[in-house]
Amino acid sequence: MNHKTTIGKFALDSLTIGMYENEMVAYREYIQNSTDAIDKAIKLGWLKSNEDANIKVNVCPNDRTIEIEDNGIGIEKNKAYSKLADIGNSDKDYLSDRGFRGIGRLAGTAYCDQLVFETSTKGESEKSIITWNCKKLKKLLQPGEYRDYDLEKVINECVSVEYDYEDNNKHFFKVIMHKVEEKSDLLNVSRVKEYLSQVAPLEMDVTCFYYYADLNSGIKRFMKDNNIPIEEYPVEVNGERMTKLYSTVIKNNDGKKVDDIVGINCSIITNDSCEPIAFLWYGDRKNCNSQIADSRVAGIRYRKDNIMVGNEETLSKFFTESRFNKYYIGELYILDKKIIPNARRDDFEDNDNYKILKDKFTEIAKRLTSIARNFSDMNNSYKKVEEAIKENEQIIERIEKEKLNKETKEELENKIKDNNSKIAKNSKKYGNSVSKLRDLGRKDIDNTISYGMKNDTFVSNNDRYLHKDNNEDYKNNKKKYDPLRGVSRDIVKVTRGILDILKNELKNTEYENIEAKVYDFVRKGKR
């Protein structure tokens, strides 16, 4: 059968507009290609290391222009047109290169009127300039129009090449997007920075997240000790060096601190042959009382060659309850070369190697879910104890200040008893959660309830009130039990003075916690 297979022009539409849901992936695709080119330049000795490399992104909203340039190996003149005009015909190696399908460079065609590639390699005195007329391309791809055009004819009419003088010592690749769509996020500099801080292969800012570079037990130290490549590249956006946004401080949507990262966990995930297939790190939170609100760092995320695959939700499906992934910050680096990102890079090709990783991480996620759930139980118990204590304080104050009839008084005293039962019940729940957390590896969690002294004080107050007829302390000091009773006058004076200062400087809840600890410290003679 003599038949010449024709590739329809709409295949190109599927590989551009239809390939990606988020226009920002254009940045990822071009930076991904830049890192491959830089690796090759380092291998040839043209660059000493990644620190000698540069990937510069310039976004000009007024001109509606975007430029992305690297000092990687570049492309030879006699190969430039075929490499930059052919579709899905890449000579890259999927085991070593990040981009290997030969379609990523088309990502920009959907969002601008003209896409220009300029490139030169060392030893050549000319640069190649390949131009895609994207405005015409979109016109030729309109359904129902230009029916006689196949893919080859479309490309031939939309792609041109020219050459210009260039310094023969230079090696680079530049992408220029002209007339980008006006309302596109591609022109929103802050959004571009936010996107690249999550996706690009960047370093971490050690001034914000010192656990990365800690010499004793930091992430970087662990990676070096286990021969895990540290693949970080200097990426600038409009002159500003980009870093990942991880921090030891967890903030809410209003920018207010709500928690701290108090440690990190690093581990190697191996297959059944004990071969490393992934590297995982995640942060331990001090309180872990809710999901992390900042979507830029929330959730453990996939990375392959230090480029994010998927988003903050991709790994959530492995948790018993998906919401618990966002209780953590962390990254799962893929080390197995045969675990390959799919074409969209929103997950991985579903092969046997990936299945092993999924099974292994599912077990890890179960443990992380258990930790998060026990923190949730612990925090809920704490809240209920606090509420019961506060209500009892108010009830006692009312009984002491108001003239109440016998029936009302008995009703309030019964409420105190009920609250004391709640305090005891939830204190026990708190202790159980703490014990489970310690069994799960959170040895930093204190078995003593952080508000335990406070509970003892107020439960004692409540009991003293309920048994006031037989309680000499209560009779002698009806208004309030003095936690410093029996302490020398000088120490009491200093303690009260310190507490007065703290009361003026701290919020009520913070002050109450510290007040209780100070009383406990003084009463136990820990001076």
Automatic annotation (TrEMBL):
Record key words, sorted: Coiled coil
Coiled coil region boundaries: 378-429
KW Coiled coil (keyword) present: yes
Superkingdom per UniProt: Bacteria
Pfam family, one: HATPase_c_3
Protein name per Swiss-Prot or TrEMBL: Molecular chaperone Hsp90
Species per Swiss-Prot/TrEMBL record: Clostridium paraputrificum
Lineage: Bacteria, Bacillati, Bacillota, Clostridia, Eubacteriales
